[in-house]
Specification:
The chain has 17 helices and no strands. With about 450 residues, the chain is mainly alpha-helical. Helix 5 runs antiparallel to helix 6 and helix 6 runs antiparallel to helix 15.
Length: about 450
């Protein structure tokens, strides 16, 4: 059994992907890179302050954004399962392009609120659909063993692009103040081209009875099927809850608290782009190499361990000087890079056969963003009271208490036997076509290998 768990991380036995699978991977890389290339990310806090917004307004918009994301997730996930993931990717790219132009036309509180609401709509259209599109496309070609690396590589390439582009934001703003938002809109338009070029095979349905254009069930039926899948699979529900720490800590730190933490340690705004670039390099390297993680632990165990490490790194930024803070932030980013592809693969593997995949992935995003909405409000209140250190320490303490509890619950519950058997049967069929059977990737080994067995 230990050998089976080890095989999850091994690349040498994987067959080479088919040309169609390689095309899916390349177009997914391009889409993820361009869609998520938000040039304004390093400066949006200062940009909104320059536009006259207060800290309360800025963090209030962020909280509204997360709540809106939650409200958009279920309907957009259902739409993806009905009309096809590729169609949702196209729609999301169109919405994102328009969203990035709003601050240029209306640099006010209302404009930034509309901007983030449109961002929430665009990202919710793609959050579950992009992963489902890649996962189903590779599975259709018998190349699903390449999913973990493909997911990590796409994220790494997107991060590498940010390393190159973000340091240019300052000089570009001196030439044209709204340039970060204009360039973000141009990037989103480029992602639309990748979505248009995706082959039809990548839009296959995520459940039984799905055709090339998506599922035929009604939205209510698809939503009910997703809820039934969660109810019948405590393993899947607990995996989603386990991944909340990785997503929330990384999102709140890298988006909402990044600049306040640096300013609190005397690092001027002129150096923020360089620090963010260094963090992005660390995250990109880790995202592209999840197989560097030791084979002695299962994926589920690694997600738990990485979550605690994130909390410790975040709390550590409260002590030491500026260079220590920069080093801890880079370590934080690297841990995030390892955690995302592993968590995403865990969730995809745990989704039962026939269940609406995009809808279930949207449920995961709802949980993540819902916690982020609460965390953003708390962050704004702590910052307004001048209690940044208390926020970081308390966040770390909560994480270090909850994650071990969730991991113990995962050990007790174990994966659904039916899902493991179905995936084993599918893996055997893939092996007959030249692919390696993949029942070893199911977290069935969790009760055996000392807690051995994903998003966001």
């Amino acid at each position: 059994m230990t050998r089976s768990v080890t095989a999850v991380w091994r690349r040498s036995a994987d067959p080479a992907p088919t040309p169609a699978a390689r095309r899916v991977i390349r177009l997914n890389n391009g889409f993820q890179l361009l869609f998520n290339l938000l040039w304004w990310m390093p400066v949006f806090y200062a940009y909104q302050r320059a536009a006259g917004l207060s800290d309360g307004q800025i963090f209030g918009i962020q909280s509204i954004y997360y709540v809106a994301f939650c409200l958009f997730e279920i309907p957009t996930g259902v739409v993806a399962d009905r009309v096809g993931a590729r169609t949702c990717l196209r729609a999301g790219a169109v919405v994102m392009t328009a969203a990035n132009l709003v601050p240029v036309l209306a640099p006010s509180y209302a404009g930034f609120l509309a901007h983030f609401l449109a961002i929430a709509a665009g990202r919710s259209l793609t959050s579950g659909a992009a992963s489902a599109c890649l996962y189903d496309g590779l599975r259709a070609e018998g190349a699903d063993s390449h999913y973990l690396r493909a997911e990590g590589t796409a994220r790494a390439l997107g991060l590498a692009a940010k390393v190159v582009c973000w340091p240019l934001v300052g000089p570009l703003m001196s030439l044209a103040h709204p340039s970060p938002y204009v360039l973000s809109a141009a990037s989103a338009a480029g992602s639309l081209g990748c979505a248009l070029a995706l082959p039809r095979i990548a839009t296959g349905g995520t459940g039984a009875g799905a055709g090339a254009g998506g599922r035929r069930g009604t939205p209510l039926r698809d939503t009910g099927a997703a809820l039934r899948a969660l109810r019948s699979s405590p393993w899947l529900a607990l995996l989603m809850a386990q991944g909340v720490a990785v997503f929330t800590l990384s999102r709140i730190c890298q988006v909402n608290l990044f600049q306040p933490v640096l300013l609190a340690h005397g690092i001027p705004e002129s150096g923020h782009g360089g620090v963010l670039a260094a963090m992005t390099v660390a995250e990109a390297v880790a995202s592209a190499r999840p197989q560097w993680l030791s084979r002695r632990l299962s994926p589920a165990a690694w997600v738990s361990l990485l979550s605690v490490a994130l909390a410790a790194a975040l709390a550590g930024t409260t002590v030491g000087g500026p260079w220590a803070v920069v080093g801890l932030l880079c370590a934080f980013a690297a841990i995030t890079g390892f955690g995302y592809p592993v968590q995403r693969k865990l969730i995809n593997d745990a989704i039962p056969e026939g269940a609406p995949r995009a809808t279930l992935l949207s449920v995961e995003s709802i949980v993540d963003r819902g916690v982020c909405a609460v965390a953003a409000v708390a962050a704004g209140a702590y910052l307004a009271a001048g209690r940044l250190d208390a926020l970081l320490w308390q966040s770390a303490a909560v994480t270090c208490v909850l994650i071990p509890v969730l991991h113990l619950a995962l050990r007790r519950v174990g994966p659904a036997p039916a899902a493991g058997a179905a995936r084993a049967q599918r893996g055997a069929g893939a092996a007959s076509a030249g692919a390696v059977a993949r029942p070893v990737e199911e977290p069935v080994a969790l009760p055996v290998d000392e807690g051995a067995a994903p998003h966001p």
